[in-house]
Amino acid sequence: MRIWTKPISIEILTGIHVDTAVQRLGIEFIEVGDDFIRARVPVNGHTKQPYGLLHGGVSVVLAETLGSCGAAYCCPEGQRAVGLDINANHLRGATAGWVSGTTRPVHIGRSTQVWQIDMQDDQGRPTCVSRITMAVLAA
């Protein structure tokens, strides 16, 4: 079942992130399904920490971007979603290639939403799992 309440596409999501941290980090939206959004981030000199691994904060930026977009595009008209809480469990380091993330809703309520974000490396191995709670507010 399609959960989006407003038009959503890769092009729309890319367009709203021009000149933001998302664009600066090289995050790319790659798929929008009926109940999920997928994006990826490169593992390179702009996104690594000193040990050569993808910076944990970059994984959280990817997670928050995906969860926030999911919440924003399934809010009822005249409402908006803002982040309340996010957590992340880093499972495996990535040293090259891309890390992709997929978000799906756990709960879509009138006043809160909870989104799960699962991240993996190019080999399909889990790198990070995250969950974000969003508050739904009147515009």
UniProtKB/TrEMBL annotation:
Keywords, alphabetical: Hydrolase
GO cellular component, one term: cytosol
Source organism, top-level taxon: Bacteria
InterPro entries according to UniProt: HotDog_dom_sf, PAAI_dom, Thioestr_dom
Molecular functions (GO terms): 1,4-dihydroxy-2-naphthoyl-CoA thioesterase activity
Positions of the Thioesterase domain: 51-127
Alphabetized CDD domains for the sequence: PaaI_thioesterase
The family this protein is said to belong to: Belongs to the thioesterase PaaI family.
Protein name according to UniProt: Hotdog fold thioesterase
Source species of the chain: Caenimonas sedimenti
